[in-house]
Amino acid sequence: MRVAYLSSEVIPFAKTGGLADIAGAIPKSIQKQGVEIIVIMPLYGIIKENHYPLTKTDIQVEVRIGDTLRTGYVYRGFLPDTQVPVYFLDNDQYYGRKGLYNYPCTTKDYEDNSERFIFFAQAALKAIEKLKIFPDIVHCNDWQTGLVPVYLKTTYAKRGCFKNTKIMMTIHNLAYQGIFWHWDMNLTGLDWSLFNWKQLEFYGKLNFLKSGIVFSDLITTVSKTYAKEIQTPEYGAGLDSVLKERAKDLYGIINGIDYTIWNPETDKLIIANYGRKDLRGKLLCKRALQNKFKLPEKDIPLVAMITRLTAQKGLDLVVDKFQDLMKINLQFILLGNGEQRYHKLFQDYAKAFPSKVAVKLAFDERSAHEIEAGADIFLMPSRFEPCGLNQLYSLKYGTVPIVRGTGGLADTITDIGSRAAPHKEANGFLFEKYDSDLLMATIVKAIDFFKNKIRWAELMRNGMAQDWSLERSALEYIALYKRLGEGK
Ligand code: ADP
């Protein structure tokens, strides 16, 4: 079986969020099961700057964008320490910039994003043809690849290379749909007859993700709960009825994590390694973290967040209760970047409570590892969460998660309940309703529980023992690929 896996971001090359983690990891696990898989992504300026060992192939593709012919040059590399080939599409005009989708350090999108990903969709398919891959499956991810299924089912349908190709679309976050003005249809080269409310149109605009959902053979998303949630108006972001229509082709496959990168026993980015049998290193990591973030090195519960600063992540609940939170004996560290209003708020908190609050407003991989290792509690009160990765990293690092029970958080975190000792499955604290009083009550409960060191260590070890590796997810994807191959 041959699979072409298309993603606009892949670690370690380019990342803005969880999609990159998965796209850089799941192909490895899929290949381990004997499936031939290649990855295709854009060659962004930051990838060139970082001097990854890539070779320029002699493959070149021409894509018509409106009236203009654009050229893409194909480079080849590998996912680090693997035999998984990654093909990079180079077009300096589209990708020779620092940001992936927006101007660096802002939330302002590039004005030509639709053109950049219209190009990507077609250039990827043309590269697959020239590479003579003959894929059984083209696996698309998120809105940036949303037009790929449309091309495959229309203008590219009769091409020999794709005669037996089936299409899977994975939704990593329905909140980002790639919605552009209708005249961009002229750039796609697709027939205007497709611009109707059952296919590419969404309230007068061109919607890439909707297009992908409508034209794919199977749709997956990254947890079973989120697969159900997105069929409701509350979580459907306007596409609930489109998804409901495809309900029998819609599956939830929970993400896993790459334990070669996220494992406190081997992590090279943390000051001391540790595991569930010997937790001593975690204390050293905590001291080092407090020191780095200029907080007093005290035995006090250390609560952390690592997150894009956007309303999705439940920051409004935290802001609502911040003053109350500061009355509790705890320290709080936030690593994040995103919307300016949150930058300002959290900067102000850090100034107002210098011995309790530390904030780093940046995207910083090393700090993310240090925080996972050094914190006691990880806070993730998301309004919605397709899967969430940080709660899984936290489990492995013995950093007990407090989450709201939505999407993948509901599928991975089991609340401690009301008993004095954690039951075997309990791995964190969970509250249901999106409500700041509930968040506060749950934090208070966790801090109280933290006082009993023996019970707390049990809870940590429960989480550390759990297996959230990607192998399980890979097997589920492969089972669906097979079903597709057999005509579902
Ligand atoms: P989402 O994809 O919605 O942002 P996930 O939990 O699925 O949320 O994945 C987020 C990923 O991005 C995690 O690997 C997390 O560690 C990382 N991340 C988020 N913000 C930062 C940051 N400021 N610095 C470093 N890593 C970050």
UniProtKB/TrEMBL annotation:
**Per its record, how is this protein called by name?**
Glycogen synthase
Q: What does this protein do?
A: Synthesizes alpha-1,4-glucan chains using ADP-glucose.
Q: Point out the gene that encodes the protein.
A: glgA
Which residues does the UniProt record annotate as the domain Starch synthase catalytic? 2-245
Which Pfam families does UniProt cross-reference here?
A: Glyco_transf_5, Glycos_transf_1
Q: Which InterPro entries match?
A: Glyco_trans_1, GS/SS, Starch_synth_cat_dom
From the broadest rank down, the organism's phylogenetic lineage runs:
Bacteria, Pseudomonadati, Planctomycetota, Candidatus Brocadiia, Candidatus Brocadiales
Q: Tell me its EC number(s), please.
A: 2.4.1.21
NCBIfam families recorded:
glgA, PRK00654.1-2
Q: Which residues bind ADP-alpha-D-glucose?
A: 15
